Automatic annotation (TrEMBL):
<dbReference type="InterPro" id="IPR036156">
    <property type="entry name" value="Beta-gal/glucu_dom_sf"/>
</dbReference>
<dbReference type="GO" id="GO:0016787">
    <property type="term" value="F:hydrolase activity"/>
</dbReference>
<dbReference type="InterPro" id="IPR008979">
    <property type="entry name" value="Galactose-bd-like_sf"/>
</dbReference>
<dbReference type="InterPro" id="IPR013783">
    <property type="entry name" value="Ig-like_fold"/>
</dbReference>
<keyword id="KW-0732">Signal</keyword>
<dbReference type="Pfam" id="PF00703">
    <property type="entry name" value="Glyco_hydro_2"/>
</dbReference>
<dbReference type="InterPro" id="IPR006104">
    <property type="entry name" value="Glyco_hydro_2_N"/>
</dbReference>
<dbReference type="InterPro" id="IPR051913">
    <property type="entry name" value="GH2_Domain-Containing"/>
</dbReference>
<protein>
    <submittedName>
        <fullName>Glycoside hydrolase family 2 TIM barrel-domain containing protein</fullName>
    </submittedName>
</protein>
<dbReference type="InterPro" id="IPR006101">
    <property type="entry name" value="Glyco_hydro_2"/>
</dbReference>
<dbReference type="InterPro" id="IPR017853">
    <property type="entry name" value="GH"/>
</dbReference>
<feature type="domain" description="Glycoside hydrolase family 2 immunoglobulin-like beta-sandwich">
    <location>
        <begin position="215"/>
        <end position="306"/>
    </location>
</feature>
<feature type="domain" description="Glycoside hydrolase family 2 catalytic">
    <location>
        <begin position="308"/>
        <end position="575"/>
    </location>
</feature>
<comment type="similarity">
    <text>Belongs to the glycosyl hydrolase 2 family.</text>
</comment>
<dbReference type="InterPro" id="IPR006103">
    <property type="entry name" value="Glyco_hydro_2_cat"/>
</dbReference>
<keyword id="KW-0378">Hydrolase</keyword>
<dbReference type="Pfam" id="PF02836">
    <property type="entry name" value="Glyco_hydro_2_C"/>
</dbReference>
Amino acid sequence: LRVLMVVAAALVAMTALEAQPARPRPLLAAADLRPSTSLDGQWNYSIDPYRDGMGGFHGGSAGTGHRRYDDVDVSAVTAADPLALYEYDLDHSPVATLPSSWLTHDPTMRHYEGLVWYQRRFAAAPIAGMRQFLRFGAVNYSADVYLNGRKLGHHEGGFTPFAFEVTGLVRKGDNRLVVGVDSERNPASVPPLVTDWESYGGITRSVSLIETPATYVDDAWIRLGRDGRIAVDVTLDGAGAAGQAVRFAIPALGLKLDGHTDGAGRWTAHIPAPRALHRWSPDSPSLYDVTVEAGADHWRDRVGFRTVEVRGARILLNGRPIFLRGICMHEEELGSDPTRAITPAAARALLTEVKTGLHGNFVRLAHYPHSEVTTRMADEIGLLLWSEVPVYWLIAWDNPETLARARAMVAENILRDRNRASIILWSVGNETPIGDARNAFLGTLADDVRTLDPDRLVTAALLTGRKEQDGHAVMVMADPLVAKLDVMAINTYNGWYTGDALADLPKIGWQTPADKPLIFSELGADALAGFHDPATKRKFSEEFQADYYRQTLAMAAKIPNLVGMSPWILKDFRSPRRQHPVYQQGWNRKGLISETGRRKQAFDILAAWYAERAKALP
Ligand code: GCB
């Protein structure tokens, strides 16, 4: 019996563990605002399609020269020893400027999927009493990281940050950082093998060396609660984390609060919002410098304060109903040869087109977490955001490893961006077929979101059923996942992927639970910018796309619980699935602007509709 009880207790402990989403450590919240040494810029790279350089059957023993992460100066060794054999030399391999995808390093790499080695040498030194971390903004799809020949770790998932502590591993003078980047996914991956976007393998976001005091602020979460109070949660890391004096401040408001961390290094406070606090909104995106002082560490972020909630079938921002005038975006900058390197200028150009061009107030960041450059820019410009994880189409729903990966992505995304006022919706999936395993999978993700961030709304982009009634179509929402969500979201392509005549779209009925807010998370049609066909308005013409928007918007206007939309998509984007030789040539053409920013007719239709909507609701 005793044994049974012990086993039972262990089982309970295991389930309890799994009930909590795993938290990334070190987290380094607001890492991008910490003083750091940038390791962006020139890196050497070398392809490795047979993954030879991982060291295996041939490469395992020292001296065969196959382990590309070894800390060896190949040219010095071979100069000294004419019999030494190396079949690589990263120090003399081609050079690329990072961050960027390898798709644009070299034309022969455009469709390469597999392993590429990257190496960067940098000068540094250990600093007495300080800790050092290497942080990667994102590496797509997986990364094996080595410093001076020693493995730091592995990370999977191409869109979220990760960091390794390198205190004691950084040496004085020259350091060799090697990253094996593998873009190949497998059937258990998130996203799955087949998507509708270019995979952009590579080190696509910034790499930095961050120094902190021995005890530092690993996480600080600051927001305006629905109760009107500012909530602050601080987590310290380090030997002095417990019982440490902490000071939180918002200097512009003259607000200061002192406290002490508990035995686990945590401090929580709730402060009535000062009268002078200006709430953040798209119309008035006020941000405040906030600071946390803890021992020798000075942590800071720039934070907006607002509330978001659902009441009945409405979304309320700062207590007032809002209509989300949105658009979807992939992480791809404007230009004819994008490389998925989002600079502040690239993010500003795209988001300004939404805000001033379309009169929008909302962006769906599809279909994975976008760069923190983008989410910060949305805070600054004043755009509401939907943020999602790449749980897309056909995931291995009953594979526990796949679930663990997706949960890790949810946690990494939310913990990176919980301080962004712009983000109001976390989405747990896109167009996933209903089924028990999928319902349970997405249900777990929705629960994780609520655990990590109960102050925002949970959604998912869903599909509907269809029936014919009195001679017209009725789209029916029958997804059991809706019960888990604050906001229902539907992707609709009636008239593009279906044979519905565009003129019939406004007659389509929408049967959804009436007491829940609904968003059209996608709607759209392809058009090649500059292809005109005013007479027959065939598919791929600007005229077809414009008519599609006119009729779909007329349909949308009749749905009482529709509280917003994010049509698909702002800009034409690369997709290897789209190979019509005339109209697509490797691009999904549902953009309202072309890849170089040329506006199509439909752009003006949506912009005019949004301008009218903005008069009715903010
Ligand atoms: C969808 C997907 C999106 C595709 C789009 C399309 O429903 O969510 O990723 O790119 O349709 O263009 O077909």
